[in-house]
Design brief:
The protein is of the alpha+beta class. The protein has a single domain (2-116), classed as Transcriptional regulator MraZ domain (Chemotaxis protein chec, 3-Layer(aba) Sandwich), CATH 3.40.1550. It is built from five helices and eight strands; from the N terminus they run ββαββααββαββα. The strands form two sheets. The chain has a six-stranded antiparallel β-sheet with strand order 1-7-8-4-3-5. β7 and β8 form a beta hairpin. Mean pLDDT is 90; it is low at 144-148.
Length: 148
């Protein structure tokens, strides 16, 4: 499981050192892809396989499925950590997430998210803060409702 928030910087070649506590789980490789809210997702091999199965289970007749699958898979890049624990962030993914130098690396349970540091700070101050407060006050995460 991935947890925590870390600040790192991309090097001049678009490589990113991942936190040491994440490396064991990614030692067999990982997949990067476009995430929601303009971040990048990083999945270990096993979790990426589960994501593939989850996406495959959605009916192809659903236009939203087709769009999601296109974005998710077309942006995917398989990676191996180098000896320094770095991964290469392809230029297209860096552009998608507006990554220049300073990034926030987040452990989000089954995946890692990579955000531009300023974008992450803005997100935390706005939408995320309000939603987190709402859920903390008793709303259900699954949309089934709750007591307020």
């Amino acid at each position: 499981m991935f947890v925590g928030e870390y600040s790192h910087a991309l090097d001049g070649k678009g490589r990113l050192v991942l936190p040491s506590r994440f490396r064991d789980e990614l030692s067999q490789g990982c997949y990067l892809t476009k995430g929601q809210e303009r971040c990048l997702y990083v999945f270990g091999q096993d979790q990426f396989d589960r994501e593939v199965e989850r996406v495959r289970s959605i009916p192809r007749t659903d236009r939203r499925y087709r769009t999601y699958a296109r974005v998710f898979f077309s942006g995917a890049s398989d990676q191996q950590l180098d000896k320094q624990g770095r991964i290469q962030l392809p230029a297209g993914l860096r552009t998608y997430a507006s990554l220049n130098k300073d990034v926030a690396i987040l452990g989000v349970g089954e995946r890692i998210e990579i955000w531009d540091s300023e974008t992450w700070a803005t997100y935390l101050e706005g939408e995320a803060d309000q939603f987190y407060s709402d859920i903390s006050d008793g709303d259900s995460l699954d949309g089934a409702g709750g007591s307020a």
